[in-house]
């Protein structure tokens, strides 16, 4: 009866729907203007399906569109949002240098606030952001980094030995490194960031929740019970809560007289406790102290960046060294001259600094395959990007660090660590193009830690293990997971290269 009574309204309803769809297309074309991009888009969804199904192809198309014009950028439409892909390095710097309330907001992920929460480092601007980075700085001093390198080496050695056992058991088939590297990096991050405060049971739960988070990153933001996105959001809440408890325990320990920092949160809390003591002794106002929940959120931010970006870089290091045996040979020669396996000693900070060629390899791996390919921002206002184009308010803007790393450098499509040598110094000459760690106020605060980890892994992996990629067609193509990795997840054959493994222990 009700359906029959609505029949006369059908033409009006259809007309309204058609009108709304027409408005959506007009809005898209008005924002797009002369920017390269699809001439028409699906209602509401836009090109979300192609983005989720094959992100590599989607972003390759955006890059090709950006290259097709002199503008240096391209456009598209995803789930009701107009997006802009920035290929040109100069324009990318313009976005990075204007992260402030009246220009751009860094979001890290198109639906990042729903996942990461509001108390996250990447959403902070102005003095609050500067103050936080000042508090974090003691966690990345040479002394702190030296503490971390010892922890990193012991964990790397343990996992390399396990990988050899797995490879031996899998013969004649190869093993897949992606998840093994991810687990190694997760243990490294947990140990370096929160050390003894994460008990074994919490570590297992941590790994389980982090997997939920990773899966949710690549799914549509459908926040309903049972969906991957909802599972990821709830997992982040649990992870932040766990890290908050670690921060609380660290602060209590650092309040003990003569307590020595043993992990990142210790260095942070040690500085906080010292500031409070100094204020009390001087009789001045007590400095503002960040809550444990906020610290937990910031630690999760570090974990996310360190975990996924580092996993990407380590996998590409294995892939690129396998395909460039001359580079591998030079790394092995340099490491053997500086670090002796027979000494059963850790690689010291001084020895690490002398591994100049291995460091150059690490920097080239990061340039050639920038793990965080794009850094999403949202335009808070209409922003004049060029003389002829203004970014509309609400646009999600993707400056491409990956594309910038292939601009300016000599023969940029070639994997060439020597470009970072003292003679060529392309890291200085093309500094503005090397955007793998971002730029501006939100440039990666832990880039030295990340490079140290990559170089330590390269040095130990190449010295202790013989490896060979299981080569298949397209195995080295790029896959988004959400950072980038080889399409086959880096399948390899491993065997022991050294006579015996060194016996490493903390000093």
TrEMBL record:
One of its GO terms (biological process) is sterol metabolic process. It is a single-pass membrane protein. GO terms for molecular function: C-22 sterol desaturase (NADPH) activity; heme binding; iron ion binding; monooxygenase activity. GO terms for cellular component: membrane. InterPro entries: Cyt_P450, Cyt_P450_CS, Cyt_P450_E_grp-I, Cyt_P450_sf. It comes from the Eukaryota. Its EC number is 1.14.19.41. The chain crosses the membrane at residues 6-23. It is found in: Membrane. Gene3D superfamilies: Cytochrome P450 (1.10.630.10). Keywords: Heme, Iron, Membrane, Metal-binding, Monooxygenase, Oxidoreductase, Transmembrane, Transmembrane helix. It is an enzyme of class 1 (oxidoreductase). Pfam families: p450. Its cofactor is heme. The keyword rRNA-binding does not apply. It catalyses: 5-dehydroepisterol + NADPH + O2 + H(+) = ergosta-5,7,22,24(28)-tetraen-3beta-ol + NADP(+) + 2 H2O. Heme binds at residue 444. Belongs to the cytochrome P450 family. This is sterol 22-desaturase. It comes from Prunus avium.
